[in-house]
Amino acid sequence: MSGTGRLTLSGRVQGNGQLTFSGTGELDASTCPMKIVNIQMSGTGFAYIYGIEGVHATMSGIGTICYRGTLLSQVISGPGSIRECIPEQTSKEPGQTSKEPEHTSEEPEHSSSESG
Question: Which comes out higher in pLDDT, residue 32 or 97?
Fold first, then answer.
């Protein structure tokens, strides 16, 4: 992807994936698992990827590569970052992340006081 925009990939790649991201925007391939992902990112933005057997990531810009799988290699030049994504933090909708896990309580909290 080059320029400004948002690209979402879905499905399943049977082999390896080579992704190049430059410019400003978002690349979401979190629901498109690939055997091994090689990603090169420059510019500003976010990339979400899923490498079943591993990830090779190169970042040279202001942005974040968020990966699932095993990080096999990383190169960072500049203020960007490469970090592991926790599956529960990524919603099923592309590009939407949940900042806090939903809290469900089976029983409401009660406060009781006894007087005697």
Answer: 32
HSE, CB side, 13 Å, CA atoms: give it for residue 52: 11
C-alpha span between 41 and 52 (Å, rounded): 20
- N-to-C CA span, the chain: 72
Q: What domain range includes position 30? A: 2-85
Q: Which residue carries 């592309």 as its tokens?
A: 94
pTM of the model: 0.71
Radius of gyration of the chain (CA): 19
Inside any domain, residue 104: no
36 within domain boundaries? yes
What is the Cα–Cα distance from 27 to 63, expressed in whole angstroms? 11
How many domains is the chain partitioned into structurally?
1
